[in-house]
Amino acid sequence: MSLINSSTKGVFVIACTPFAEDGALDGESIGRMVDFYYEKGADGLTILGMMGEAPKLTQAESIEVTKLTLKRSEGKPVVVGVSALGLAAIGELTKAAMDLGAAGVMVAPPSALRTDEQIITYYRNVVDTVGADVPVVLQDFPLSTGVQISSKTLGVIFEAHPSIVMLKHEDWPGLQKITDLREAEAKGRRRTSILCGNAGVFLTEEMQRGADGAMTGFAYPEMMVDVVRLSNEGRYEAAQDLFDAYLPLMRYEQQPGLGLAVRKHVLAKRGAIASATQRRPGPALSVLAVKEIEKLIERQVHKLDLLRGRT
After folding, report:
1. Is 11 left (phi over 0), alpha (psi -120 to 50) or beta?
2. Spatial distance between the Cα atoms of 123 and 109, rounded to a whole number of angstroms
3. Can you tell me the distance from the alpha carbon of 220 to that of 37, in angstroms, rounded to the nearest whole number?
4. Can you tell me which residues bind pyruvate (predicted)?
5. CA 40, CA 15: separation in Å to the nearest integer?
6. What is the pLDDT of residues 50-64, one digit of tens each?
7. For the domain with range 10-228, which CATH number is right: 3.30.460.10, 3.30.2350.10, 3.20.20.70, 3.40.50.920?
8. Confidence of residue 228 (pLDDT cuts 50, 70, 90)
9. Would the annotation count 33 as a binding residue?
10. Alpha helix locations (H) across the chain?
């Protein structure tokens, strides 16, 4: 399997973790889900992220999910989330993942970090722990971690550690950060791949600012694939028109605390996984919420039909 690098582009879908109704890992659905994502055009996958319910898994289960995903991916790149409170756990899961053939690992900063120096030191320790030969994705998601990382601090980290090859950008607001990072590269700082999260809700603007693609788990990955492709072709209006058809459902999925339930419901409806079950604790969708989702999907289909008829 090829490793990710500072030029990696495209769509890496943040995969959910399928569970059976009793909360056990659903290995069969993992295979089905992997096939679904690649059939929809994904360039790679990222597993065991925040929306992959990684904190609810044991270390052994995390390794099992990694093993099953990599086997089904058949050489396509898979990034493994290894974020943990302690460096020892990060090191252990990283070694297991890379030995199994992962393309790299993703690490978010722990919530206790506050100063620039603490953040810089933390990622130095991460690289020392996993090894400088392991490609690392730095996850910048302050709405979840509470850790604010400035463009300047990111630049210091990227320059100091060439193995940190990618930024998973999901600061909000954060479009200016993409611009700042690309401007710094134009002045001589080494290049870093930028794939964006936030469920894709800013993807059209992010691509125009210089992002390389998306790393998020919206239940219609084909939209992200097409938006990235159209943007790379310079067809920004077409990308925006397509994006707009999906935006209402994306907005609904962005509800804090409920988003994963929405995403899993849609994935189950699309046949990607057998059950929308989350491992406890996790919120359940109300009957009314399900009706709202169904209505949004119905309207989405209608808008896409109109769009295709026009083009």
Report:
1. beta
2. 8
3. 9
4. 215
5. 13
6. 899 999 999 999 999
7. 3.20.20.70
8. very high
9. no
10. 27-39, 59-73, 87-100, 116-130, 142-145, 151-160, 175-186, 203-209, 221-232, 236-253, 259-269, 287-310
DSSP states of 91-137? HHHHHHHHHHT-SEEEEPPPTT--SHHHHHHHHHHHHHHH-TTS-EE
CA 207 to chain centre: 16
Confidence label for 273 from pLDDT (cuts 50, 70 and 90): very high
Question: Residue 73's pLDDT band (boundaries 50, 70, 90)?
Answer: very high
Enumerate residues 6+ apart whose C-beta is below 8 A from 59.
Answer: 89, 92, 93
Measured from the Cβ of residue 294, the count of other Cβ atoms closer than 10 Å reads 13
* 86 exposure class (CB count in 10 Å sphere: 0-12, 13-18, 19+): exposed
Question: Which of 21, 49, 27, 302 is closest to 170 using CA atoms?
Answer: 49
pLDDT above 70 for 284:
yes
Band the pLDDT of 301: cuts 50, 70, 90: very high
What is the pLDDT averaged over residues 284-301?
Answer: 98
Closest CA to 253 of 213, 230, 205, 221: 221
Given this model, what pLDDT does residue 309 score? 86
**pLDDT reading at 244 higher than 60:** yes
Tokens 């089905």 belong to which residue? 32
d(CA 285, CA 86) in angstroms, rounded, equals 34
| Cα separation, 9 vs 296, whole angstroms | 30
- Which secondary-structure segment (H or E) carries 273? none
